[in-house]
Amino acid sequence: MIEMMLETFETGTGYWHPLVWLVAFVIIFLIVYIIRGFGEKKYKKGTGQTQAFLSGNKEYDKQLMHVQSSNLYWGWTEALKWIIDVLKKMHTGNVSDYVLWFVVVLGVLLLFVGLM
Amino acid sequence: MNIVDMLLTHAPALTIAIPLLGAFLTPLISRVSEKGRNIFAIITVGITALFVFLMASEVLSNGPMTYVFGSTAATVQQSTVIRILFEVDALSIFMAIIGIILSFVAVVYSYAFMEKNTGLDKYYTLLLLMTTGMLGMMLTGDMFNFFVFLEITSIASAALVAFWTNKAKAVEAGFKYIVISTIGALFVLFAIALLYGQYDALNMAKIAQSLGISGFTFIDKIALVLLIAALAMKGGLAPMHMWLPDAYGRAPASISLLLVGATQASLYGLFRIVFTVYGDVISLPSISIGWILVLLGLITMLIGVIMAIIQTDFKRLIGYGAVAELGYMALAVGTGLTIVANADPNITLETAPFAMKAITGGLFHVINDALDIGLLFLVAGAVYYATKETSLNKLGGLARNMKYTTIFFIIGLLAVSGLPPFNGFASKLLIYESTYQLNPILSIVAILSSILLLAIFVKVLHSVFLGPALPKYETVREVPKSMLLAMAVIAGIIIVFGLFPQVIVTNLVEPAANALVNNSGYLQWLTGGF
Amino acid sequence: MKGMSSIVKTIANISFPIITIYGLYIIAHGHLTPGGGFQGGAIVASGLALLAVAHGTSWVESKVKEHDLSMLESLGALGFIGLAFLGLIMGGAFFSNFLADTSMLFGAIPVDGAANINTGGTLPLMNFAVGLKVIAGLFAIVLVMAIATNKEED
Amino acid sequence: MIANIPYLAVAGLIIIGLYTLLFKKNLIKMVIGITILESGVNLFLITLGYRMGSVAPIFTGNADNPVMSYPVPQALTLTSIVIGVAVLALMLTLVIHIYRHHGSLHVSKLGGDDQ
Lengths: 116, 530, 154, 115
Known about the structure:
The complex is a heterotetramer of chains A (116), B (530), C (154) and D (115). Helices cover 56% and strands 3% of the residues of chain A. Chain A has 116 residues and is mostly helical. In chain A, strands 1-2 form a two-stranded antiparallel ribbon. Chain C has 154 residues and is mainly α. Chain C has one domain. Chain C has 5 helices and no strands. Chain C has helices at 6-28, 37-55, 57-63, 66-91, 123-153. Chain D is mainly alpha-helical and 115 residues long. Helix content of chain D is 63%, strand content 0%. The longest helix of chain D is centred in the last third of the chain and has 32 residues, at 71-102. The termini of chain D are far apart. Classes of the chains: A mainly alpha (116), B mainly alpha (530), C mainly alpha (154), D mainly alpha (115). Chain B binds chain C through residues 10, 13-14, 17, 20-21, 24-25, 27-28, 31, 67-72, 121, and chain C through 70-71, 74, 77-78, 81, 84-85, 87-88, 91-97.
C-alpha cells in the first residue's frame, strides 16, 4: 500500500511528485528562515521605527485604511474596461435573455452539425 | 455471508430508495423531535454513502453492474428491452462518489448552519430529494429515467435556492433556475422522443447498439444537438451559464454545495450521451463534434474569470469561479472527444495518446473542482453565519477571530487556482499538457484563466480576512463545531488528493475514463445475452 | 375570500360527493381503464377546491389544517415506497409485483385476458397510495395559494 | 399530408411557447409559455405512439382484440404531465413571492446584479 502511495504522477509528457516538492519546500523554507535570522534585531517596538511610513502623512484610524475589495484591482478593471462593459451588458439577469441565449446556441449547433 | 451479497445485489436500487424513504419520513420524525430529524437526515445520507462505497468496490473490481426494477431479469423480447434498468459502471460510480460526499458534507454542515431558520422539515425533505435525484441521474441506464431524475433534481434545487423567501433575490434566482431547468429538460424529453420514435428503445445501451447498426441519420443529429445544448445549459457552459451565479449566489451555502454536484451530474449526462450512446457513430465528415465542447469550454473559462473580477458579492464571485472551472472540464473532455470522435481512421486513441490523458485530466478535475469550489462555498456560508454580511466591501479583518475558517479558505484558494501541493494542480497539469498537444492556444487560455482565478481569490482573501480589525466585527465568534467539521472533511480530502494524486488516478479516475471511452463494457450485458 | 351565495354552497355540497366517488373510481380502476393514482387524486382534489371556493377559505381553514394535509401526503408517499420495499423483500427485486398470480388480495390470474379489478397485483395498492398523496398534495397547494393571495387583500 | 398534421401542431406549439417566453414581459405569461411548450412536447410523444385506426390500449379481454396504439409513449406523456403540474405549482408560488417583494410582475424586476 505504501509504495502505491509514493508513485510519481505521470502525465504522458511529464512527471509530478508532491512529496518531493514538499521536501524541497521545507528545505528552502529552513534556508530562508536562517537568512531571516541575520536580520537587524535591535529595533524598539512601539516607537516611530515600527510605525507605518505613509511618506509622512498621518495614519487615519483603522477602518478608513482598509483597501476595499472593489477598488483593489481598479487598474486591471480599467484596462479590461472594453470587454467588461460588453460582458456587463450581456449579463442582464433577465430570464427571457437566458432563454434567448439557449435558442441562439441551439440554432448555431443545428447549423454546425447540419452543415458539417 | 450472504447478507453483504444480498445488499450488494440490491445496492443500486437501495442507493436511490433510502434517501427517498428518508425524504418521506422527515416530516413524521420532526413531529417527534427537531434535533432527531437533523440526526435522522445525517444517518440516512450516511447509510446511502455506505451503499455507494460498497458498489464502488464491486464495480471497480469486476465490471459494470446492472439492476432491473420490478423483476430479476430484464425481458428482451424481439430486441426491445422491457423494464427500467440501472447500469452502474466505473464512470457512474465515480460521479456517485462525488455526489454522496457533497451531500453528506451538506447535511452535516446544515445541522448548525440552518439552525435558526423555520420550515426545516421542508428543507431536509428537499435536500434528501435532491440527493435522490442527483444519484439517480448518475446511476440510471434508461434515458427517460434520466429525464425524470433530472426534473426531480431541478424542482428540489429550485425550491431550495428560493428557501429564504424573505430575500427577494433568492426567490428571483429560484424562479430563473426553474424556468431554465424546465426548458432544458423539455428539450431533453424531445430528443428522447426522437430516439424512441426511431429505435423503439429507451435503454441507453439498446439505443447505442441500434445506433451503431443503423448509422448517424439526420434525426439522430437533431437529437444529439438538442441533448448537447440542453445538458450544456444545465451544466452551466458557455453563454447559457448566467443562471448559475444567480442560483449559487443566493442559495444557502450547503445548497450551493449540492448544486455543484447537480450541475456536474448534468455534465456527466452530456459525457455519457456523447461518448457511450453516440460512441461509435459520432464522426462528422470534416470536423469532430469535440470542437463544440472545446469551444464552449474556452468561452466559459474566459467569461467566468473576467466576470468574477468585478463582483462584490462573496458567493456570487465564487459562482463565477465555478463557471470558469466548468470550462476546464468541458475543454479537457472536448479535447479527448476530438480524437475519439473523428472521421479519418489514422487519428485514433493509440496514435494520439494525449486524448486519454485529457479525458483522465477532465474527470479528475470534476472531483477536484467539486471539492475546492464546495469548500469555498462552505467558507462563504461560515462568513455569512458569523457576520450576516455577504458584500466584500463591508467585510474586513475576520482572520483575527475566525482562525480555522481562514485556514480552510487559504486551502480552498490554493487548490482552486491550481497551486502545487493541492489537488487542483494535479488535474490542471494533466489538462495543460494534453490540450497543449491538440492546440497550444487552448492550454495558454487555460493557464491564463487559472492565474486570473488566483488573483481574484487573493483579492477576496485580502478584503475579507486580512486588513485591520473593523469595530463592527469585534464580537464575531468562530462558527460552531459541526460547520468546522464539514469544512475539515473536505479540506482533508483535498490535501490527500493533492499529496497522492497517482493513487486516486490509477484506481478511480482511469477506470472511469476507460469506461467512458470504449462503450463495449457498457453494452456487454446486452450483447452477452441476458 | 369569503364564501359565495347560499345557492352555490348547496350545489357545491350536492356535487362534492359525486365528484369524490368518480375520482375514487378512477383511482381504483387505474390498472384497467385510463387513469390511476394521479388522475383520480386530481379529480378529488378539484372537488375539494370546489368546496374551498364555494364556502370561502376562512371556513376551510377552520376545518382543515395545512399540517394534517402534509401528514396525509407523507403517509401516501410512505405507502408507495413501502410497497416498493416489500417488493424487494418478497419479490426479489425493488418494485417487483409480489402480489401478482398469488391467491392473495389482488392476485387473481386473469382468465383468457379478462382482467378485472382483482388481477392487478400491487398496482391497485400503489394507485391508492399515490391517490392519497395527490389528493392531500394538490389540495394543500390550492389551500396555501388561496390563503397566500387573500392575505394580500385584507 | 393528413398524417403529419400532428407534427405541424407540435412545431406550432413549440414555436408559440418559445415566442411567449422570449418576448412576453409578464411573469405569468412566461409560465403559460412554458406550459404551452410542455404540451407541444407531450403532443409529440403521443403522436409517436399512434397507429392508423387504433383504439386506446386497454386490455379488456374481449375476443376481437383490435389494433391498439402503443402504451409506452402514453405512459411517458403521463409522467411528463405530472412533472409539468409540479413545476407549474412551484413556478406560480415563486411568482406570488416575487409579486409580494416587488409589487409588479415585470421581467425587468428580476434584477441585473452585474449592472
